[in-house]
Design goal:
There is one protein chain. By secondary structure, this protein is of the alpha/beta class. It has two domains: about 130 residues, Endonuclease Chain A (Endonuclease, Chain A), CATH 3.30.870.10; about 60 residues, Winged helix-like DNA-binding domain superfamily/Winged helix DNA-binding domain (Arc Repressor Mutant, subunit A), CATH 1.10.10.10. The protein contains nine helices and seven strands, in the order βαβαβαββββαααααα. A hairpin with a 3-residue loop joins strand 5 and strand 6. The radius of gyration is 17 Å and the shape is globular. The two termini are about 30 Å apart.
Length: about 210
C-alpha cells in the first residue's frame, strides 16, 4: 500500500481523468470557491458519462463556507449534493479506485496524498455514501472524552502521517504516540490507523 504526494495540478489531472464517477468530501472548514477539487469536478458535469457527487456535513450547510445558494447553483449545474451527519476529511474518490486526500482540511494549498487501488478504498466509499444518521450517535460521548492531544493524533492519522514523523512533530516519544494511537483506534472501533482518522473526521472529532 502506498500513497504519494501530489500537487494541485496533479489533483486536477486525476479528477479530469475520471471515467464514470467522482465523489467529493467537503468538510466545510474552508471556502467552497477556488478549490481545485470543486472546480475540476464541476468541469466534468457536462460529460454525461461522469457522475459528480459532493458530500457536505449537514451542520455546515448554510455557513459562510457552504452557502446554500452556491450549493443550489452547483446542483443546477449537475453536481449531486448530499448531506452527511458528520464531517469527512477533505478528499476525492475517483472511479472508486483512486483516493486523493488533502493535507490541509481548509484547502488544497499544501497538496495531497494520492493512492491507487488501496485496500481501504471500498470502506471509504461505504462510509462516505452511508446515509444512516445513527452512525453519528457515538460522536457526542467520544467528543467529551477526547483531549486536545488526542485530536492532534487523530489529525495526524487522517493525514496518513508516519508514526515517527507525527511523534516528532508533536514532541512525543514514539512509544507514547503509538500507545495513544492504539487507544484511539479502540475508542473508535477502527481496524486501521487511516480508518481511525477517517472516522474522526466523519464524526467531527478533529476540531
Amino acid at each position: 500500500m502506498q500513497m504519494n504526494f501530489a500537487g494541485q495540478a496533479q489533483v486536477r489531472q486525476a479528477i479530469h481523468g475520471a471515467r464514470s464517477e467522482v465523489l467529493l468530501a467537503v468538510p466545510g472548514e474552508g471556502p467552497l470557491e477556488g478549490q481545485v477539487d470543486v472546480a475540476a469536478a464541476h468541469g466534468l458535469t457536462g460529460n454525461s458519462g461522469v457522475s459528480v457527487r459532493m458530500y457536505v456535513p449537514a451542520a455546515a450547510r448554510g455557513s459562510a463556507a457552504l452557502p446554500e445558494h452556491r450549493l443550489a447553483a452547483l446542483a443546477r449545474e449537475g453536481v449531486e449534493i448530499h448531506s452527511t451527519p458528520g464531517r469527512s476529511p477533505r478528499m476525492v474518490i475517483i472511479d472508486r479506485s483512486v483516493v486523493v486526500l488533502a493535507r490541509n482540511q481548509e484547502d488544497w494549498t499544501e497538496g495531497a496524498l494520492i493512492g491507487h487501488h488501496l485496500p481501504f478504498t471500498p470502506m471509504l466509499v461505504r462510509s462516505l455514501t452511508a446515509t444512516d444518521p445513527a452512525d453519528d450517535a457515538v460522536a457526542p460521548q467520544v467528543k467529551e472524552e477526547l483531549s486536545a492531544l488526542d485530536r492532534q493524533v487523530l489529525r495526524q492519522l487522517a493525514l496518513g502521517t508516519k508514526d515517527e514523523t507525527a511523534a516528532r512533530e508533536m514532541g512525543l516519544a514514539l512509544r507514547t504516540y503509538r500507545r495513544m494511537v492504539a487507544r484511539l483506534m479502540d475508542t473508535l472501533d477502527a481496524r486501521s490507523r487511516f480508518q481511525a482518522g477517517y472516522l474522526a473526521g466523519q464524526h467531527g472529532l478533529l476540531q
